[in-house]
Amino acid sequence: MLPVRVLRPFFVLGLAFALADGVARAQSGQPDIQGDVFGYDDATKNAVVTGNARMTLGDLLLTADEIRYNAATQTAAARGHLIITTGARRLVADEGTYHTPDGQITARNLRVGQFPVYVSGETVAGTFDQLIFTNATVFFRENAGYTPSITATHLTYAKGKIVKAEGLGVGLLGGHFIHLPRFEQSLDVDFISYVSATVGYRARLGVFTELGLHLPVADGVKLGGDVGLYSARGLMAGPSGTYHRADNDGAIGGFFRSGFIRDSGDRGTDILGVAVPRDRSFFTWEHRETYGEHFTLNGEFNYWSDSEVLRDFRHREFDRVQQPDSFVEAAYTSDNYSLSAFSRFHPNRYYRVEERLPELRFDLFPVAAPLGSYQRLNASAAVIESDAFGTDPRLRTTRFDAYYGIERPIAPTPWFTFTPVAGGRVTHYTDALGGKDQYTRTIGEVGFDARLLASGVYDVKYAVWEIDGLRHLVEPKLSYRYAPAAAHGRAYIPPIDQRVFSTYLQPLSIGDSRNVDDLTALNTARFSLNNMLQTRDAKYGSRNLAALNFAADYRFESAAGQRHVSNIYTELALMPAPWVRFEVFHRFDPHATRQQELNTGLTLIDQEWWSLRLATHFLRSDYNEYFLEYRYRLNESYDVTALFRYDGKRRRFNEQSYGVWQRLGQTWAVKYEVSFFDGPRRESAFSLNIGVELLKF
Q1: 23-55 per-residue burial string, b: 16 or more CB within 10 A, e: under 16
Q2: Contacts of 600 by beta carbon, 8 Å cutoff, 6+ apart
Q3: Which residues make Cβ contacts (< 8 Å) with residue 422, sequence separation at least 6?
Q4: Is the link from the previous residue into 116 a cis peptide, with omega within 30 of 0?
Q5: pLDDT digit string, tens, across residues 114-144
Q6: Side-chain-facing half-sphere of 219: CA atoms under 13 Å
Q7: pTM assigned to the model
Q8: Which end of the chain has the least Cβ crowding within 10 Å, N or C?
Q9: 229 - beta bridge partners?
Q10: What's the average model confidence in pLDDT over 247-265?
């Protein structure tokens, strides 16, 4: 054996040859290896670099405590804090190898990912484009025991997507309680799209707990269920799911949810005074679809076993939709026309619904016609029906309806436009009333729209509100329609599409009226005055600061119960900054000289710390309510909320809710809420809820 002093010259010479070869490779597109200490292992023919060891190859960077590079096999073996980075992708491992010609990677205890999703495995082999993990764990946002995660005995990860996984477990990093044989999942899409758990108490339900969960079963499809256990009522459970898919041709999406319970509690009566059945259920489905640039398909289906089922068990959903609707509509829309098929059906018998079984409709949007005029047309054929409800009998008819209108704008100056209009509507009914088998109504209308437009510009600057100049737009408008025969034939027309209660101004033209079976004679002028205040936008164009609009009708011939002058309508909106908006709707009766309706709304938003919504709702002889909703962020983890509904007419708080939102790390949100209710209502007078929601998974 040669002494060390004899070997040392050979070692230095070998290292010099290795480094010289490394420099040549770097100059020819081969890796460049650097570090604080260089060595050479003659037995393995490896150049050894320690101390800030790094290897670069194009945009790839490999760092480790030690790098051993074999020029013959073109493989770098690294150990100790191995990190491989290329572009936005980054791998971290305890040790591993990298083959420079094809980018093949082997590693032990490797971690890879990009916020919010990370993947780790005991052993890994593959390339940046595809890695195969054994005993893999996928976790989200943070490495904590309460973080949702996925485990798999074998997992293939390719370009941000789990291509294949076997021996799958789903749960928290502390334990996995759901097992699936295999699946595919893109990591830029939520894995579990909805997880919630609520525990609480309501007097009519007792102590309760509710749980919702969705899991992927196919690309874009997540299925699961909702379960609720109520100590005073029993168990409600039902399947639910969501689906969404999009490509260059269009998009499809929707959801469904359901529930069934054999209710053992005090069920009371429904809105018709009929006893609520023991077996109660609901099913809700919504679908939205687009295909290409012209076709849409939308639908909803809502089945409730009784009118109170959602009010009792899903009162937040009931607050948003108190009368369910079921319909499906397919529409093809071109540049200047629309062709649609619409069907409205009625699976619930405790509301009166105007059903379409179905309705086919063609709409020609206003298009240019000869002599500078514009024409419009709409035509429909429908089987319409309304079931017997209360004292109203069952009605059914086949209705053919068409309206044609023409107008000719005349603009003698840029600031004045006068547009004469004329139109006619023909409606044919089968199964007519008054002893007639069929009835055809033909009516016409004439009128005009006169419009002025004026503006003023003012050099006003106010830095606090980011105001850079003011522009005031004023638009007075006078419209008139005359259709004296619109009310003809009412004795023969099945009154299915009737007027609905509304406190807002209705369309003036017979061509725009939806209450086709309940028209009244027209000899009416409508005056409106619109004001808009704008300023220059810092980025582009202008920004609206305020709007003030007035409108009223004058009926030259008024129907029974009507006066010549209608109510006076006023709308005001103030939006001087993105964080504040104030709105007012006011309706005034000039004959009684008193206010009929007043609705106000004030919204203040601080994006970081708080938000406030204050609203009032006044309708004479009906209600006078004050609404306040407030949210304040205490710190990174806690928000406090409050909601009040005060009945000024009866001098009581219809609802008081106080809540605390808590964020657990970056994954979970917990809401603690206590609510008090007053007044003659079906809901409990007191409720306590603790809800847990998965923010994203």
Answers
A1: eebbeeebbebebeebbbeeeeebbbbbeebbb
A2: 582, 583, 584, 585, 614, 615, 616
A3: 405, 406, 407, 444, 445, 446, 447
A4: yes
A5: 666 778 899 999 988 888 999 988 876 666 6
A6: 9
A7: 0.75
A8: N
A9: 209, 235
A10: 95
DSSP-assigned letter for residue 160: T
For residue 369, the tally of other CB atoms under 10 A from its CB is 13
What confidence tier does 14 reach under pLDDT thresholds 50, 70, 90? very low
Other CB atoms closer than 10 Å to residue 647's CB: what's the count?
A: 16
Contacts 24+ apart (CB under 8 A), 39-47: 39/15, 40/11, 40/14, 40/15, 41/68, 42/10, 42/11, 42/14, 44/68, 44/70, 45/70, 45/71, 45/72, 46/70, 46/77, 47/15, 47/18, 47/19, 47/22, 47/71
Tell me how far apart the alpha carbons of residues 340 and 23 are, in angstroms, rounded to a whole number. 72
Which residues make Cβ contacts (< 8 Å) with residue 236, sequence separation at least 6?
Answer: 226, 227, 228, 229, 230, 259, 260, 261, 313
Average pLDDT, the chain: 87
- Return the structure tokens found at 78: 């690294």
Cα torsion 496, 500, 504, 505 to 10°: value is 30
Structure tokens at 218: 């196919």
Mean pLDDT lowest among 383-392, 445-454, 524-533, 652-661: 383-392
Q: Is the pLDDT of residue 503 over 70?
A: yes
